[in-house]
Design brief:
Elements: H1 2-19, H2 25-50, H3 53-69, H4 73-93, H5 98-107, H6 112-125, H7 135-145, E1 168-169, H8 175-191, H9 196-202, E2 206-213, E3 216-225, E4 242-249, H10 261-269, E5 273-275, E6 283-286, H11 287-305, E7 312-318, H12 320-336, H13 338-344, E8 345-351, E9 357-359, H14 375-379, E10 387-391, H15 408-412, H16 430-440, H17 444-451, E11 464-469, H18 472-480, E12 492-497, H19 501-508, H20 513-516, H21 519-527, H22 531-586
Parallel strand pairs: 4-7, 7-8, 8-10, 10-11
Antiparallel strand pairs: 1-12, 2-3, 3-4, 5-6, 6-9, 11-12
Length: about 600
């Protein structure tokens, strides 16, 4: 961290001395960001070697044992002090800034009591109901870890998402349509950023067209698909192949100077609510991104019109590319009707996309939402599962413009100078970087005054959401203290309704303005948003699951072969026994 502070100071000093304060955004902002990015890699190495997952897990389990013995306030304070001391010792051993390590450890203390309770539940019961250890295993483990039983002893602990009825593990029958297809679309969403042609050809897609509209890059590809890719394997599906036309939209790329990045950022931040249409009363959408969606839709509309009557359409995108894809789905429904959408649009796939709509009308039916309900889509008469949204739980972008937006307060709490973010918060290493960027942005005052108030919204996610979860050890480590900032391989995929998503994230993956203002948390957050976190993490999960399923099949095959052998032996023994009985019965007549 010492090294990071030195690098940050160098960046700021170079920016001020070599460039000055009055410069064009395209020059000074890029200069500061590029210089900072070049130094992040060394920080990642420092963080990973300083705080290994195993060391933090050991600390977690140690604290859990102590708290299980005596949960009074004095003991809790002692545990917190031990956590801070451990962080200081680790930092000292690595020659890092001890005071910053201690500050980060103290920043987590408000979560400590709840965290240790959650840790007990996750260790024994997993993420959702059905992943628990057996009662006997739980009792043995609880005894070993000195984890107290509930008062009624009926259940040792609760899974992480026990309060959310829509959160569940995906079934084996849903694996292909949710995970395998999701991983494929994540890879395609990443391909639009780099290595486009080799990647899409390797996936069996052909390029039809590509272009740029409203500063958003898009591409249209064709491939062959089957109903089994979009429905559970337990369903009766038609395996006749048909053409699928996929429209993929790219998210915001700060390194791409071929588009007007400032104009696009301004539209992204213009989150004022506007009605979708008088046709769908009660639905409001993101004003700036709906303007983008309309422009993109006009450009791609001919490629929708040209597909044959039996061909299907898929919309796909990462970050704002996914958000705009959702808005284009709404535009198609407005223009062509729900019958067309249900028949021709197979699905919309989004990855790390911010919410852009809210429905405040009456819920249909008996007024009680189903566990997979999406009020926005149902308000339009569309099924909730027409949109699949995939989420890295620590990704802050999926929380933008929602009630748990961790980044709005950074702007909402501006200093008197108009350029200091989170002015009332404690000193932060990130502040000089952000101040230097804002000071050198000529149009910052206008941007700030026009968008600061409208960015605070309560938009909701759309469709059915899927959380890409880490293994439990990594989850507990990240929950206690942010030290492993790199993206993790996905260990499990959980389904959650859009209506419960933000409550579930807010409880299980707390991310507020205080924590996100810390350098490691900020870096981790945006690394978990970048497209490789979705594409590569998902691919690792598919490979792991395929290996697991292969081992299951081999094991089952061995059992069947063993059973067949035993059956043959049993038949042989019965046959021999019957022969002996016949021989014995014939003996007196000989």
């Amino acid at each position: 961290m010492n090294g990071l502070r030195k690098n940050v100071n160098n960046v700021v000093e170079k920016n001020q001395s070599a460039i000055g304060t009055k410069l064009d955004l395209s020059l000074s902002t890029d200069f500061v960001l590029n210089q900072a990015i070049q130094r992040i890699e060394s920080f990642l190495d420092d963080a990973t070697t300083s705080f290994s997952q195993e060391r933090v897990q050991s600390l977690i389990l140690s604290a859990t044992r102590v708290l299980a013995v005596d949960q009074n306030a004095d003991n809790l304070k002692s545990i917190i002090d031990k956590i801070v001391l451990t962080a200081e010792n680790i930092a000292r051993e690595q020659g890092l800034d001890v005071s910053e390590a201690a500050a980060q450890a103290r920043a987590t203390t408000k979560y400590t009591t709840e965290f240790l309770r959650v840790a007990n539940g996750v260790l024994l019961s997993g993420y959702v109901a059905g992943s628990e250890l057996s009662l006997k295993q739980s009792e043995n483990y609880a005894r070993e870890m000195r984890i107290p039983l509930d008062a009624d002893d009926a259940k040792l602990s609760k899974p992480l998402f026990h309060r959310f009825r829509s959160v569940q593990r995906i079934s084996d029958e849903s694996f292909d349509q949710v995970s395998r297809k999701g991983a494929e679309m994540a890879k395609l969403a990443g391909a639009i950023y780099q290595d486009t042609i080799p990647t899409i050809h390797g996936m069996g897609h052909s390029m039809v067209a590509n272009g740029t509209s409203a500063d958003v890059i898009w591409m249209v590809t064709d491939s062959i698909g089957y109903d089994s890719e979009f429905q559970e394997t337990s369903c009766d599906v038609n395996n006749t192949p048909y053409l699928i036309r996929t429209i993929t939209l790219r998210g915001f790329d700060a390194s791409d100077d071929s588009v007007d990045r400032e104009r696009l950022v301004t539209r992204i931040c213009n989150a004022d609510r506007v009605p979708l249409s008088s046709k769908f009363e009660g639905i409001d959408v993101h004003k700036g991104l709906m303007e983008v969606a309309k422009e993109v839709y006009e450009e791609i509309k001919p490629f929708i019109d040209m597909v044959g009557p039996t061909h299907k359409i898929v919309l796909n995108g990462h970050s704002i590319g996914g958000a705009v894809s959702n808005l284009i789905l709404m535009l198609i429904s407005l223009e062509r009707g729900n019958v067309y959408v249900k028949d021709r649009i197979k699905r919309v796939y989004t990855f790390g996309s911010p919410p852009v709509a809210i429905y405040e009308g009456k819920v249909g039916g008996n007024g009680e939402a189903s566990k997979d309900s999406c009020s926005v889509l149902e308000g339009m008469g569309l099924p909730s599962d027409i949109v699949y949204g995939y989420i890295e739980p620590w990704d802050p972008v999926v929380r933008l413009f929602s009630r748990i937006d961790a980044m709005y307060p950074l702007i909402g709490d501006l200093g008197d100078d108009g350029v200091t973010l989170y002015a009332t918060g404690p000193p932060r290493t990130l502040r000089p970087i952000t101040r230097a960027i804002l000071e050198s942005w000529e149009n910052w005052p206008t941007f700030r005054d026009e968008n600061r108030l409208v960015m605070k919204q309560d938009f909701r996610s759309i469709g059915i959401c899927y959380l890409l979860m880490p293994d439990i050890g990594r989850y507990l480590t990240d929950r206690l203290v942010t030290v492993n900032v790199n993206a993790y391989p996905v260990d499990e995929v959980l389904r959650v309704s859009s209506d419960e998503l933000y409550d579930a994230l807010g409880e299980a993956f707390p991310l507020d303005v205080f924590s996100i203002s810390l350098v490691p948390t900020a870096i981790r957050s945006f690394i978990h948003h970048f497209f490789p976190a979705y594409a590569e993490g998902f691919q690792a999960f598919i490979a792991k699951e395929e290996k697991k399923n292969k081992n299951k099949r081999l094991s089952k095959s061995s059992v069947n072969e063993s059973t067949d052998t035993q059956s043959e032996d049993s038949i042989y023994r019965r046959s021999r026994s019957q022969d002996d009985q016949v021989s014995s019965a014939q003996t007196p007549f000989l």
